[in-house]
Amino acid sequence: MVLSKPASDSDLTMHATSASRYVRDSLPRYEMPENSIPKEAAYQVIHDELLLDFKPKLNLASFVTTLMEPECDKLIMESINKNYVDMDEYPVTTELHNRCVNMIARLFHTPLGESEDAIGVGTVGSSEAIMLAGLAFKRKWQNKRKAEGKPYDKPNIVTGANVQVCWEKFARYFEVELKEVKVTEGYYVMDPAKAVEMVDENTICVAAILGSTYNGEFEDVKLLNDLLLEKNKQTGWDTPIHVDAASGGFIAPFIYPELEWDFRLPLVKSINVSGHKYGLVYAGIGWNIWRSKDDLPEELIFHIKYLGAEQSTFTLNFSKGSSQIIAQYYQLIRLGQEGYKNIMENCHENAMVLKEGLEKTGCFEILSKDDGVPVVAFSLKNKKGGHDEFEVSEMLRRYGWIVPAYPMPADAQHVIVLRVVIRAEFSRTLAERLVHDITTVLHELEKLPPKVNGEGKEVHVNVEENWSNGVASKRKSDLETQREITTYWKNYVSAQKEIKRQKIMAS
Amino acid sequence: MVITTTIPDSGEHLDSTFASRYVRTPVPKYKMPANPIPKEAAYQIINDELMLDGTPRLNLASFVTTWMEPECEKLMMASINKNYVDMDEYPVTTELQNRCVNMIARLFNAPVGETDTAVGVGTVGSSEAIMLAGLAFKRKWQSKRKLEGKPYDKPNIVTGANVQVCWEKFARYFEVDLKEVKLSEGYYVMDPVKAVEMVDENTICVAAILGSTLTGEFENVKLLNELLTEKNKETGWDTPIHVDAASGGFIAPFIYPTLEWDFRLPLVKSINASGHKYGLVYPGVGWVVWRTKEDLPDDLVFHINYLGSDQPTFTLNFSKGSSQIIAQYYQFVRLGFEGYKNVMENCLENARALKEGIEKTGLFNIVSKDVGVPLVAFSLKDSSKYDVFEISGSLRKFGWIVPAYTMPPNAEHIAVLRVVIREDFSRALAERLISDIEKVMKEMETHLIRVSTKTAHVTATVDETQDGDDGGKKHIKKSARETPEEIATYWRQLVARKKTGVC
């Protein structure tokens, strides 16, 4: 006789995850749990909490790629356990990196022979790339000043106030002064004339942006080059240029090939570009290319014997994954120049569709240019309705869209914009849907009490002067109720945000 | 009547990849190709070339994790398109990072209350973590010196000569002088006494390593703390300690819980650990934790309005993937304290088995200690006939990557082979490695016997010249050694040629 025994409570492997005790326990937040749990349970509970993150593809705030082909995903997964820095163990991966550098260098018209190796490096993003480029300029300038017997303790860098935060980080962490050219209303990028004026003997380089974060505009690098050449002739300082082409580097070569912004201009000594923006790769890859060996001081390069083999390295990060580098190479050979061009043309087309849809509503002013990075930056024409761009952004979230609102840089901080980035995966259908949802949001906002008056200041309740007493008292209670509700909701949301912010700041 | 026509060369999409023209054309290397190719072809071409990379799991040179559970890989793939820095858009992912920081801080006995948020950050690796920690020390020291009205242009950092290259990078890129305590034969880590001697008023911190890259040894942080506390009392300089626990941070708490090396020591102000080493996550995540808020100068933290909301950031990298952070949290929740302990105990056991197997050959000296990172570093008892570099080369034939390298100054005459025992290095693999090492050693010996019998014959005929003619004697010896040397040199040059090019 076979004695059958029913599975007991303790037979954890029998339970469906939702039936198990693991979904009753709260996930640990402060201290590592004592015991292990089954992998299925671990997967499920974490996966479920992550459902509350927003959807990457609807994150219209970001330039960073959110979709790649399944074949590429496969390659990514297969190389997820390869530590890129083990160059001796993974020579093919290293080779793919070098091929990417060569291809990108030639895209930027680096003066190279046909099978000459370019000078460049893959990084984790444009932040690292910019820090490396900045370091190279700083060291070169210091060496020059030492040779001249002049002081070298106060280096500075000239940029526009519209620079991305990584330049400010570079300045602060590497002790270089940041001299910012302020922008003005209607002109939201760095003015080359003002920039060149600010250049002095301590300037290690002037940084121009190809694709400003705020409105996607390309700065006039050619004009900067011409003006700086003149000044260099007069002063003999030999100040170079760096182009931050984080966004523009994978756009301009394909749809604006005649635009001279790269190494065709003699003063441009290094260029950075984000592989994970219009390079069409997932987050985690950037590139920095130098014009020639002379532009990268040898003393910054480390030749090390790590794990037994000799490697030369000029990066801030050391161990890191190989997946994004392989993915970049995949994209470069899969799409080729024609493929990238087609994608950029599509993006541009969809950006125009969105722009026209917004213009048709009659409520918005468009602050982005047609040329440049495919973004649409827009602000409310007038604040007569008493609402601002932040409210529009907030309400769009309810429909699933993330469209950020933010002020322009100094000295145009009073101008607030909403900005939609058109990535490769933002189709025409989505563009039309967004216009539809924005229109709906505008209608809804009209029904709400004003948050701001004509001058953009918060409105304080003072209704009596406009109404006769009888009507006023009736109206006031309706209005009052509405106002109470919205104020309550707004306070609740900002309180939540404040809690979150404090948590983040503390960590 | 249906007229059928054959369509020549039409449906390219019908060709199986290996029948298509894409495998006939040379792979683009210097210039971006003008035209696109089908995604299947792109996948195949790249996948095939990558087959010639080493096998990650057989890469015994690396501490970095090469295997994770499929459930975790699923989570990683699902979050591969999340840009970590978009904190407002991915609040749960940000929250998971914060939880990891909290857990790691408490693992290191940071003085935080039960529900306090710890001060720390996830990075791309220990390199970034160390640079951030170093920056914090540098800025704190500069502020202190400015207040005292003293010069602050010559900061330095005291470490052992056994530090990993990222400290040298930090020193060079951030213009801090590196004062290295030299090693000596038999003592391959930083000597706390010598280190404290080197400390001066410009020292921003002393960096100790928990798990030296070369031998896996833990430095004596407790002794360093005691000696430095004394010196600080005399000098009033208040020099702090940083512990580089890249490897050891996820080992010591589980199997050496009584070892005092972390925030239990009052002078330790920050600790870094690699999530991708014994944190058991794929490459791309590190952690740095500060003792308290005061140890992280606020002017280094950026509060920015990026993409529309306030985001505080203290990292060198900005945009990056979220997968590894989520994977780290998965491991903490999945394994728990118990799980990590079990994994580490297994590693130690397998390391012991490997060590014994190597000792049994009678040809090696074990240089690594039993306590520390589970690795086995060993040198040849007799390096006159062949060296560890040749053994390393021969082991590659069997598929193993076992690195060989010389020690840093002042022990450069010692060369070792080193095997790192990771989670996925099972006992079966250990036994296989031992047997392959034995094979290699046999090969080395047999090869030499063959050469030396030839030499013996030659030597016999020139015996008369041995004493008098130095030149002649040297010449004979050279030919016995020449052949294996030539082979090794040829192979070394071949490998070196592969490594030219950009960094």
UniProtKB/TrEMBL annotation, chain A:
Keyword set includes RNA-binding: no
Cofactor: pyridoxal 5'-phosphate
Top-level taxon of origin: Eukaryota
UniProt xrefs under InterPro entries: Glutamate_decarboxylase, PyrdxlP-dep_de-COase, PyrdxlP-dep_Trfase, PyrdxlP-dep_Trfase_major
UniProt-listed Enzyme Commission number(s): 4.1.1.15
Keywords from the UniProt entry: Calmodulin-binding, Decarboxylase, Lyase, Pyridoxal phosphate
CC terms in the record's Gene Ontology section: cytosol
UniProt catalytic activity: L-glutamate + H(+) = 4-aminobutanoate + CO2
Entry coiled-coil feature ranges: none
GO molecular function, one term: pyridoxal phosphate binding
BP GO annotations: L-glutamate catabolic process
Residue numbers carrying N6-(pyridoxal phosphate)lysine: 277
Similarity annotation: Belongs to the group II decarboxylase family.
Protein name per Swiss-Prot or TrEMBL: Glutamate decarboxylase
Record organism: Quercus rubra (Northern red oak)
UniProtKB/TrEMBL annotation, chain B:
One Gene Ontology cellular component annotation held by this UniProt entry: cytosol
Keywords, alphabetical: Calmodulin-binding, Decarboxylase, Lyase, Pyridoxal phosphate
EC number of this enzyme: 4.1.1.15
Source taxon at top rank: Eukaryota
Reactions mediated catalytically: L-glutamate + H(+) = 4-aminobutanoate + CO2
N6-(pyridoxal phosphate)lysine: modified positions: 277
SUPFAM superfamilies xref list: PLP-dependent transferases (SSF53383)
GO terms assigned for molecular function: calmodulin binding; glutamate decarboxylase activity; pyridoxal phosphate binding
InterPro entries to which the protein is assigned, alphabetical: Glutamate_decarboxylase, PyrdxlP-dep_de-COase, PyrdxlP-dep_Trfase, PyrdxlP-dep_Trfase_major
Cofactor(s) the record lists: pyridoxal 5'-phosphate
GO biological process entries: L-glutamate catabolic process
Cross-referenced PANTHER family: GLUTAMATE DECARBOXYLASE, GLUTAMATE DECARBOXYLASE 5
Similarity field: Belongs to the group II decarboxylase family.
Protein name, UniProt field: Glutamate decarboxylase
